[in-house]
Design a protein that fits this description.
six-stranded parallel beta sheet, metal ion binding, single chain, 224 residues, 8 strands, PGP-like_dom2, alpha/beta, HAD-SF_hydro_IA, 40% helix, two-stranded antiparallel sheet, 2 domains, phosphoglycolate phosphatase activity, Rossmann fold
Length: 224
């Protein structure tokens, strides 16, 4: 894709690991969960690499010997603890603030497409200040399918009043890039996020690569 010729008028963010650093609150909730079930606690760095894969993956990491109903019981306990401690340490990634402020100044459309369920997303966003309100928030259960299927991406573009080809989607997991490609959007890999350990260069056929949140802000300021 010729990114220089692409007319971008909408920025769409993945939530965990791209827009917000939620890892410390996930780690805190998992620490309490492990303590409750007398399980050895996880190293923060190990959990961080798993955040983008969702609650089940994090629970499996902490309780590898369990499956079925017992694993589900711990997953739900973990998510309940996380819900009740969802904004202790979560912040916009340092360096993104100037980009978000620029979008607000230009009255530009932006939104969020996440696989996080609505009940957690809404609680989290209640406690985060953005310079302007996202035009759309698409969650993992908004539609019958979620990323990497294109439907959530296409709905987000529609609600932002943009054509998919005029959107850029930023994410920290190969699934995010796949979703953007499936929706015919420009894609940007947030390499500062919660990258899965097994992710390789070939898994990231993104148009752009951002090593720091500040680089995303620079991109936004240059495009809008």
């Amino acid at each position: 894709m010729d990114t220089s010729a692409h007319d971008i008028n909408c920025v769409l963010f993945d939530l965990d690991g791209t827009l917000l650093d939620t890892s410390y609150d996930f780690a805190y909730a998992m620490h309490l969960t492990c303590e409750h079930f007398n399980q050895k606690t996880l190293r923060y760095q190990d959990l961080r690499k798993t955040v983008s894969q969702g609650g089940l993956a994090m629970t499996k990491l902490a309780f590898p010997e369990l499956e079925g109903e017992e694993l589900e019981q711990r997953r739900q306990f973990f998510l309940d603890v996380y819900f009740n401690n969802i904004d202790r340490h979560t912040r916009i990634f340092p360096g993104l603030e100037s980009g978000l402020e620029h979008l607000a100044k230009k009255d530009a459309s932006w939104g969020i497409v996440t696989n996080k369920p609505t009940w957690l997303t809404e609680k989290l966003l209640q406690n985060v200040y953005f310079p302007s309100t996202p035009k759309t928030v698409i969650c993992g259960d908004t539609l019958a399918v979620r990323k990497p299927f294109p439907e959530p991406m296409l709905l987000a573009a529609k609600e932002c009043g943009s054509a998919p080809e005029n959107c850029i989607y930023l994410g920290d997991h190969p699934r995010d890039i796949e979703a953007g490609i499936n929706a015919k959007m420009m894609t940007g890999a947030a390499l500062f996020g919660y990258l899965p350990e097994q992710a390789e260069d070939k898994d990231w056929p993104a148009d752009l690569f951002f090593n720091t949140p500040y680089e995303i802000s620079q991109f936004i300021e240059n495009r809008f």
